[in-house]
Design a protein that fits this description.
CATH topology of the largest domain: Rossmann fold
Strand content: 35-45%
Strand order of the largest sheet: 1-2-4-3-6-7
Shape: globular
Helix content: 10-25%
Number of helices: 8
CATH superfamily of the largest domain: P-loop containing nucleotide triphosphate hydrolases
Mean pLDDT: 89
Radius of gyration: 25 Å
């Protein structure tokens, strides 16, 4: 994948992209909702566009669907230019956040709607809808009305209706937002399994970081109408490109530092924390010079916490006092006021039942982490 200053995210893979977006822009009241973006998506991907409210992700999805018209740029799907093609003539279907299930139709008729509108023979409609009902796990519910269904079942009806015409591309706008946490987690895996059974490319829009990481083959993180970073979930989480990307995905502790040295051949870097004389080392592909300001990021779950500290060349150790703690059942979250480096968050797994009782509010503790946990970010 190539990333450059023109906000291009175009794969360098040999195979021709299934979706090609070039120099796409859209503005409302002279403010760009989508600002000159470029993107390649390959056939069979479950690709997620992730970002906060107002970042432009839904506008981008609506332009791909043909609901919004771009100011400039082009969208190509499976080798065919989409500019000027009406939404109902594109090889695309879209599932909206509200599901938009017809309240006066039962499950069977809701799913069959697209086939009936295009005058598909009745015997073929019955065959295809019966197959889809099994695929989306709504067996024996074909005569139920929408008001007799749970939230998860309504979501499957909407999904079945969106897939029944076998679109080449399915767009999903916040598809799991209306579900409770447990059902959302269950449905994520069902959605992945469903995609793997179909010859359809999925593009999902969401603001939920965990949902994006669970579902996606790749993620595009958006902010202010542009892509900040694109990559597989582990790449964006472990090696964010900047402070915004690091902070958007989960929690991260940030330390202001100054670069002492950076070896461009080995990527090894050494920096000194501004608030103390502690040296931080690690590796980075970002380019720094001696004396540059740098932000060092460390995820809370990468930190260890104990009541005694031992010096190691491979570890960084800070001393502090527990200011707040929260018990989440499977983990504890500690906010620790350090002597020189502000408040640091530590997430500790409850591996043993008795572990949660050892550390208390106001305890003096030591925080430690491996050098490999350090992420060096441009400030």
């Amino acid at each position: 994948m190539t990333i450059n200053k023109e906000n291009n995210y175009c794969d360098s893979q040999d195979k021709e992209p299934f979706i090609k977006i070039r120099n796409l822009s859209k503005k409302f009241d002279n403010i760009y909702a989508v600002d000159n973006i470029n993107l390649d998506i390959h056939k069979g991907e479950l690709f997620t566009i992730l970002g906060g409210s107002g970042c432009g992700k839904s506008t981008l999805l609506r332009m791909i669907a043909g609901i919004e018209l771009p100011e400039s740029g082009s969208i190509e799907v499976d080798g065919h230019e989409m500019n000027g093609v009406a939404a109902n003539e594109r090889p695309i279907n879209m599932m909206f956040q509200s599901y938009a299930v017809f309240p006066h139709m039962n499950v069977f008729k809701n799913i069959a709607y697209g086939l009936i509108k295009q005058k598909t023979p009745k015997n073929l409609v019955k065959e295809k809808v019966s197959e889809m009902i099994k695929l989306v796990q709504l067996d024996n519910l074909d005569n139920r009305m929408p008001n007799q269904l749970s939230g998860g079942q309504l979501q499957r009806v909407a999904l079945g209706r969106a897939l029944i015409k076998e679109p080449k591309l399915l767009l999903l706008d916040e598809p799991l937002a209306a579900l409770d946490k447990k059902l959302r987690e269950q449905t994520q895996f069902e959605l992945i399994n469903l995609k793997n059974k179909l010859d359809t490319t999925f593009i999902v829009v969401t603001h939920d970081q965990e949902e994006a990481m669970t579902l996606s083959s790749r993620i595009a993180l958006m902010d202010k109408g542009q892509f900040v970073q694109i990559g597989v979930p582990s790449e964006i989480y472990e090696t964010p490109i900047n402070k915004f990307a690091a902070d958007f995905f989960g929690s991260m502790n940030f330390f202001a530092a100054e670069v002492i040295s950076h070896n461009k051949q080995t990527n090894e870097i050494c920096a000194k924390l501004k608030s103390s004389n502690i040296l931080i080392t690690g590796q980075t592909k970002n380019h720094f010079n001696s004396g540059d300001k740098v932000t060092v990021g460390v995820r809370p779950e990468k930190l260890g916490i104990s009541t005694s500290g031992s010096v190691s060349e491979k570890k960084t150790i800070l001393e502090g006092q527990i200011e707040d703690l929260a018990y989440y059942g499977n983990r504890n979250l500690y906010r620790i006021k350090t002597n020189d480096n502000g408040v640091v968050q530590v997430s500790s797994q409850n591996v043993k039942r008795s572990e949660s009782i050892h550390l208390k509010w106001k305890n003096k503790v030591f925080i430690s982490w491996e050098n490999s946990a350090n992420v060096f970010l441009k400030t």
